[in-house]
Design a protein that fits this description.
290 residues, Rossmann fold, eight-stranded mixed β-sheet, 8 strands
Length: 290
């Protein structure tokens, strides 16, 4: 397990304790050079969904990372995650930050279907923005990690969106919920529908070894989403002989796991280098025949 360096100032630690102020701070400190943002591109006009693209300067056939944010499937906006797009672009990746519909407007599985449509749009259009449609990785945090995992583990989502799971060369999950039964919270019970179908809503249910490579990142210090979810999914995929890696931190909180992706905090841990190494590695390899 890894520790992250704790050399943050007291003021910055206090700022990070509030989710909204944290995101505002991280965005305000994100680098503004080295990449070109293209904002509010529609990818599902019927649902009113848009995405942002962060293109590294001079990018040609670069790896692509499609990022889905968290928020308990109820909160969040792509605009809040400029710092993620900037950090990924500075690693040489074309970053796509996509919105998806949330509860109570929609329930499972519609928010996962929205994410599948974002990947299909990326495959069809990302070459215009310097990315390679053959080098796409899905990445998510919190509920967004769940969405990305479902795309990687259940091929039906990409198929139903008019695409192919084979378009995904890998998936990165940060602090994701992958095995959260029994579902007892009233809002989650409403989001995920009939208890008879709860098993089919869990990413671990689809761990059959046919998935693209997974990089699962969690922390023992996460009091919001237990690292047990990551450990369980890792074990299930590994037992099925599927490609999977894990990084478990000892003391990062749930919010700090994502903050460590940012440019200004990336030097405090190996989290961003680990992600960059994984993306570069899996997008250079020929697609697995599964």
């Amino acid at each position: 397990m890894k520790r992250f360096a704790s050399s943050l100032t007291g003021l910055f630690v206090v700022t990070l304790l509030g989710a909204c102020s944290e995101l505002q701070m991280l965005n305000s400190m994100a680098p503004q050079n080295g990449y070109e943002p293209t904002l509010n591109l529609p990818f599902d006009s019927a649902a009113g969904l848009r995405l942002d693209v962060y293109k590294p300067n001079g990018a040609v056939n670069a790896p692509v990372v499609v990022f889905f944010y968290g928020g308990r499937w109820q909160h969040g906006r792509k605009e809040d995650y400029q710092f993620v797009g900037a950090a990924l672009a500075q690693q040489g990746f074309v970053a796509v930050i996509a919105d998806y519909r949330k509860y109570p407007q929609v329930r499972y599985p519609l928010f996962v279907e929205d994410c599948a449509h974002a990947v299909v749009w990326t495959h069809e259009h990302i070459q215009t923005y310097g990315g390679s449609p053959q080098r796409v990785v899905a990445m998510g945090y919190d509920a967004g990690a769940y969405n990305a995992a479902m795309l990687a583990l259940d091929p039906e989502f990409m198929k139903d969106a008019g695409g192919d799971r084979g378009w995904l060369r890998g998936m990165v999950g940060i602090g994701g919920p992958y095995d959260f039964m029994p579902i007892v919270a009233p809002d989650l019970r409403d989001i995920f529908g009939s208890p008879l179908h709860y098993p089919q809503t869990q990413p671990v249910f689809y761990a059959d070894g046919t998935n693209p490579p997974l990089l699962l990142i969690a922390s023992k210090g996460d009091q919001v989403v237990s690292a047990r979810d990551t450990e369980t999914l890792y074990d299930r995929v590994a037992r099925a002989n599927g490609p999977v890696e894990k990084v478990i931190y000892t003391d990062a909180s749930h919010s700090k796991l994502l903050a460590l992706v940012s440019h200004q905090l990336s030097g405090q841990s190996d989290l961003l280098p680990d992600i960059a190494n994984f993306v570069n590695r899996v997008t250079r390899q020929p697609p697995a025949q599964r």
